[in-house]
Specification:
This protein is 27% helix and 17% strand. The chain is α/β, with parallel strands linked by helices. Strand 19 and strand 20 form a beta hairpin. The protein binds 1-O-alpha-D-glucopyranosyl-D-fructose (TEU). Residues 64, 67, 104, 146, 168, 204-205, 259, 261, 288, 333-334, 393, 420 line the site of 1-O-alpha-D-glucopyranosyl-D-fructose.
């Protein structure tokens, strides 16, 4: 049965995320840039995607690789200039590809003009752009910081004998959205980019923007690991997003996706409900957190638990069904490579596993967010030395663990699986030095497997992950059932098999994914059916059984 879902382009779109620092370097400085992306427009076009999500390209001291913005209207020198941006935007639009940018307005860089002014004096006109608490009343109630050297979100500032709030690094002070001037500044900069012609925004930790400015103690139930749920449910969050929608978003035909950190299935519809006039979709953090403890340490062996993974995906599909829309993802710049995180990156299984995960990504209900490099099955680099890391998150947590006398071996082994830098190594274009990413010294090491895992070698192999990815995209675009069809999980308790059905206008499609190295037989009335795509050359079918090979993934159209 098909639900009375509203069909629209941003539900049918496939998004491809480009982390500019690591995509392609055009000038040999070891850092990816806009001209580098322009040089790969043909490649991007051939993927068949509809929208590019570009991570921040604004001026920034790069304390958090561009998520600490010092000027929202200027391009970071390392990435190029505004005419490069305009050339890239035109190039994408000429190919019929939309561009969404990253809106990072929960915080700015401490080098932003607003903060430079704000910290000068307590009566500076910009003082109330940020969260300041005078020190004479003692330190405010505890707030945790994701990246702070000591995990403390209050930073004492000598000049005005006050503390300022920073949920992330101390160089990322939180903007005070309670100040209408701040909100107007944000809306103005959003209009600036929309008037340049962009097609939407991915909104960085947008759920964190509202704070109770009495700064009460964090309720006990949120302490420990789930204080992001507290941050994500501020008192005026929805007032602000409704206002943003009224003042800006409603005036353009755009795509908006919230980074829904802290959202739950209980409250997500307040943010993305079709009747809410807030955002169109958001992505949650439940599966990335599976089996990870504080500081992304691996706990036991649960981090690949497929039964839990299926439960999470099914719960979120159920919560959004017919009332909102989801964003489907495994990889992004904050996540390790999906083939390492969720399947198997050994030379023997990596290609099959990557194709299997891409099959999941492109046959689920919700807009697929594909991360650059996953189309060729790039894997975790698994650094042995902390000196190889570039990410403030891993580096600060490592030194915090070191100061506490914690287990650094366990930390390093865990981060070979969970660290963000695993997803930030440069794209591997060819088997030549640095994978063809740069003629200089890359800002972060290239995965040494670039000699065998690269675009060039896969372009010439019709059975490669890359060709399979393109076929999956074609399949999704030809079959509305894969976009809008109802979703039903089958075999929920099977530990290695992810089997689900999509149904739309009287048609059924079954997707069978083997998440293991074992052969998996399962009962399946193989009444007349077509194999729409298969990551192997054949499929073992008997009268009432199907047997999947290791990491085999098939999409079956069930005959009427
Ligand atoms: O991310 C929010 C965030 O908390 C994650 O970065 C964090 O790593 C979490 O553990 C997810 O696994 C956004 C951006 O995507 C991220 O790159 C920035 O570092 C962060 O906000 C601050 O802007």
């Amino acid at each position: 049965m098909s639900s009375n879902v509203q069909k629209t382009w941003w539900k049918e779109a496939i998004v491809y995320q480009i982390y500019p620092r690591s995509f392609m370097d055009s000038d040999g400085d070891g850092i990816g840039d806009l001209k580098g992306i322009i040089s790969k427009l043909d490649y991007i076009e051939k993927l068949g995607i509809d929208v590019v999500w570009l991570n921040p390209i604004y001026k920034s001291p790069n304390d958090d690789n561009g998520y600490d913005i010092s000027d929202y209207r200027e391009i970071l020198d390392e990435f190029g200039n505004m005419s490069d941006f305009e050339e890239l935007l035109k190039g994408l639009h000429d190919l019929g590809i939309k561009l969404i940018m990253d809106l990072v307005v929960n915080h700015t860089s401490d080098e932003h003009f607003w903060f430079q002014e704000s910290r000068k004096s307590r009566d500076n006109p910009y003082r109330d752009y940020y969260h300041w608490v005078p020190a004479e009343n003692g330190k405010p109630n505890k707030r945790w910081s994701f990246f702070d050297k000591d995990g403390d979100a209050w930073k004492f500032d000598e000049a005005t004998n006050s503390y300022y709030l920073h949920y992330f690094s101390e160089k990322q002070p939180d903007l005070k959205w309670e100040n209408p001037k701040v909100r107007q500044e944000v809306y103005d900069l959003m209009h600036y980019w929309f008037k340049k012609g962009i097609d939407g925004f991915r909104m960085d930790v947008i759920t964190f923007i509202s704070k109770d400015i009495a700064y009460p103690p964090i309720p006990e139930k949120f302490n420990g690991k789930s204080w992001d749920k507290f941050y994500g449910a501020g008192p005026k969050l929805h007032d602000y997003i409704k206002e943003m929608n009224r003042e800006v978003l409603s005036k353009y035909d755009i795509l908006t996706v919230g980074e829904g950190i802290g959202t739950t299935t209980e409250n997500v519809l307040y943010l993305v409900g079709e009747d809410r006039n807030e955002l169109q979709m958001s992505y949650h953090f439940e599966h990335p957190a599976l089996g990870l403890g504080d500081r992304k340490l691996i706990i036991g062996n649960d981090y690949k638990n497929l039964v839990e993974f299926k439960k999470i995906q099914t719960k979120w599909d159920e919560a959004l069904k017919g009332k909102g829309w989801g964003a489907i993802y495994l990889g992004n710049h904050d996540q390790p490579r999906m083939v390492s995180r969720w399947a198997n990156d050994s030379p023997e299984y990596r290609p099959y596993a990557a194709k299997m995960l891409n099959t999941w990504l492109l046959t689920m209900r919700g807009t697929p967010f594909c991360y650059m490099g996953d189309e060729i099955g790039m894997a975790n680099i698994k650094f042995d030395n902390i000196e190889d890391y570039r990410d403030i998150e891993t580096i600060n947590w490592y030194h915090l663990t070191e100061r506490e006398g914690g287990d650094l071996d366990h930390f390093m082994e865990s981060h070979k699986i969970s660290a963000r830098d695993n997803g930030r190594t440069p794209i591997q274009w060819e088997p030549s030095v640095n994978g063809g990413f740069t003629t200089g010294t890359p800002w972060i090491k290239v995965n040494p497997n670039y000699t065998s895992v690269n675009v060039e070698v896969q372009e010439s192999d019709p059975k490669s992950v890359l060709h399979h990815y393109r076929k999956l995209i074609e399949l999704r675009k030809k079959n509305d059932i894969l976009v809008y069809g109802d979703y039903q999980l089958l075999e929920p308790n099977h530990k290695e098999l992810y089997l689900y059905q999509r149904s739309w206008e009287g048609q059924d499609v079954c997707i069978a994914l083997n998440f293991s190295t074992q052969k998996i037989p399962f009962d399946f009335k193989t009444r007349n059916m077509d194999v729409l795509i298969n990551n192997y050359d054949s499929l073992s079918i008997s009268e009432s059984k199907i047997e999947l090979e290791a990491f085999q993934a098939v999409v079956l159209k069930i005959g009427t």
